[in-house]
Amino acid sequence: MADWTSTLLNIGINIPLDKDEFSILCPFHDDTRSSCSINVEKEAWICFAGCGAGSLQTFIKRLGYDIDVEYDLNLFDEFYKVEEETDLEEISLPETFIADSYPNWIFDRGFDEEILFRWGCGTNKYDDLIIPIYDKGSRLVGWVARRMNATPKYMYSYGLKKSALLFGGNRIKKSDYVCVVEGTLDAMWLDKYGHSSVALLGAHLSRKQEELLVNLPTDELVLCLDNDETGKKAGNYALTTLSSNVMVSVIDLPKQYKDVQEIKNKVTLNTIINNRNFW
Fold it and tell me: Which of 99, 196, 200, 279 is most buried by its number of CB atoms within 10 A?
């Protein structure tokens, strides 16, 4: 096994000597809260702010160092392959969490206290919106902070296994259809207008999430992913993967909208969902 601790230290990454897994400031964005998790034993890394994930070979290569990379793993796959074999751990909300209090900027985006309360949201001393994340058994297993004036905009709790979760999955009752979106606020936005929704917490669809989706109490999954290249590729993959086990449809999001959260008019949103395409 490669001595990854020495390798990382030699290229100037300041890491602890006595731990196999730890968090550092992510070198791929302007990080202030140590959002990059590294596991030298599993030879994997992931940035919970969304910069990517993969093997430590790809991590070092991405930093610009010329090393002998025997294989180039598809980003996310290797880390999530390990994560999916690990049970989710119940955690607590951060000590700075303030329940039933919300940053003013979230109301400017069209959200109201009713929907924020329904999803158990709160704020913290940084004026972030804190959104709890539960597993299918309604155990609190993580949280996401949506930040207004910081980069990156989203920060996830340490160790959150996004690939093993469907945000909002614990809330789904028997429904004619369930909308599948990328982000937490997207799911909350659709729920505000009466559409049962779950979020993948990203565009990547893991094997565990495939299993969770096909076992939801519904006859149809409606793909409502972001209107960009990544979202379209993810949608094509999801159609291919899921359609053999459940009815799958996809909305036709007009080009002026990046995601469903940008559709502020209820009638327009309902029309787009009702006119979805079946495959």
Answer: 200
